[in-house]
Amino acid sequence: MKALIIGFGFIGRDLVKAFYEKKDAIRKIDRDFKVIGVSHSKGYLHNDEGLDLQRLQHIKNLEDYGSSYHAGESSLGLIEKSEADLMVEATPTRIKDGEPGLTFIRKALNSGISVVTSNKGPLVVAFHELTRLAEKNGCELLYEGTVAGAIPIFSLVRECLQGDRVLRISGILNGTTNYILSRMYFDEMSFELALKEAQERGISERDSSYDVDGIDAACKVVILANALMNRNVKFEDVEITGIRGITQEALSLAKKSNFAIKLIGTIDSTLEVAPKLVPINHPLCVHGTLNAVHLETDLAKEITLVGYGAGRETVSAVLNDVLTVLRKKKKAA
Ligand SMILES: NC(=O)c1ccc[n+]([C@@H]2O[C@H](COP(=O)([O-])OP(=O)(O)OC[C@H]3O[C@@H](n4cnc5c(N)ncnc54)[C@H](OP(=O)(O)O)[C@@H]3O)[C@@H](O)[C@H]2O)c1
Prior knowledge:
This protein is α/β, with parallel strands linked by helices. It has 13 helices and 13 strands. Strand 12 and strand 13 form a beta hairpin. The protein binds NADP nicotinamide-adenine-dinucleotide phosphate. The site of NADP nicotinamide-adenine-dinucleotide phosphate has 25 residues, from helix 1 and strand 2.
């Protein structure tokens, strides 16, 4: 199987490392697996014989790979000419229009290329269009890394809860806000100081509004609702309140009654992201950068998953999606 990686940033680079480290496990499923193209915003590498993953994992810029680099060329050209079987899409999230990832994913699926993505934007904008497109073209579209990082929420429901109906989902879906709220709760830090610390430690972006105003969590609510509860909802359907208004007073009052305050995304009859009081002994009440997802289903009743929602651990979700595609394609061959 021939694979492309679109986007050579944090995720793309980590995936190359994982492909190299796990090459024996990958070969057990598909001994001909190779990465034939990798792109970024300024051009791409393409070699139909397969790129050297050992070399690729040590370079910072694609230009440094040497031969096979096409400067100034768009990823669309790579997708068009590559005859790949699989594309991993890891470009930046833009929730306004899902671009540039949405165009890349449409192009791949229309060309019969299965897609694994960690990018929320295209799914928030066009979830049902893309899943229909994948089905029509006999391709896989997997997106485990888009929600709650390494927590295998979609795989769990797809594989292990096939007979269950998901009735309600609630969760801590943003690690940055959970970190800030945890520092405020346990260390009595102000919101401003906790945010500054999160930025200094690389937990929050310099533009923190995406996290602290609940936008990132709302994107995840939309994807969960559409993917796991068969809804047809948009970003605008989510009622959003961020954490800027949470005061020290509110937190210490909560603490006195054995509650914490957490930014919770909820999919019920309505969609909401808002700070909520959570009993300190509830399984959702996790701290630091951890995420947690609480599922309520008709048969299993309640299941809570806890894990890392972003960072290095996300590669687990992306790699496992790739292995799922390889297995399915091998079975179908
Ligand atoms: N980082 C995480 O922990 C994490 C966790 C879960 C999900 N995600 C999601 O995964 C995606 C990738 O995240 P990341 O952290 O790897 O982002 P990143 O470090 O910003 O890397 C993005 C990559 O996409 C490339 N790119 C931008 N525009 C492009 C275009 N038009 N054509 C081709 N490539 C383009 C960039 O190229 P240049 O280098 O040339 O700018 C860069 O290589 C994002 O959607 C993010 O929200 C990230």
